[in-house]
Specification:
- The protein is mainly alpha-helical.
- It folds into two domains: 8-37, no CATH class; 44-142, no CATH class.
- Helices cover 70% and strands 0% of the residues.
- GO terms for molecular function: DNA-binding transcription factor activity; sequence-specific DNA binding.
Length: 143
């Protein structure tokens, strides 16, 4: 887990810094920016959080999320509770992975993300027997 300084920044200062960060990300190549700014640990943490939120939105069972992302049951529960309060509404409704897939680019990004996530899920699962109810359920959740 990334180290966070014990010295707190004033709320007003934090808000200004956060707004500036969002403005910079919007103006530059996000991929390069993230690679340059964040450590590998921070990138993994953010990727897991994004995946967790989106998997919850798609209705994946908690146990599948835990095994796939290697997170604890309490982490999944915490994110589920936060999502029920509407905290991830902007992310899940307006992201390229949400339901607003009007543009072809967004649809392509959504498809690529879920295809890659499916591959990761299947890596951690036992071999499948054709026609089993368990695999039918998992496949239905992913498509």
């Amino acid at each position: 887990m990334p180290h966070i300084s014990r010295r707190k920044v004033k709320k007003k200062t934090f808000r200004k810094i956060s707004d500036q960060l969002v403005n910079v990300i919007a103006k530059v190549n996000s991929r390069d920016f993230v690679r340059e700014l964040l450590t590998p640990t921070e990138r993994i943490m953010l990727a897991k959080r994004l995946s967790l939120v989106l998997m919850l939105k798609r209705g994946f069972p908690f146990s599948v999320i835990e095994r796939t992302l290697k997170v604890s049951p309490s982490t999944v529960l915490r994110f589920w509770l936060i999502s029920k309060q509407g905290s991830f509404a902007t992310l899940t409704h307006k992201s390229a992975f949400g339901d607003d897939t009007k543009s072809k680019v967004r649809h392509k990004n959504k498809s690529n993300f879920w295809d890659e996530l499916e591959s990761l899920i299947l890596l951690g699962m036992p071999r499948r027997a054709s026609g089993t109810a368990r695999w039918d359920k998992i496949r239905s959740l992913m498509h």
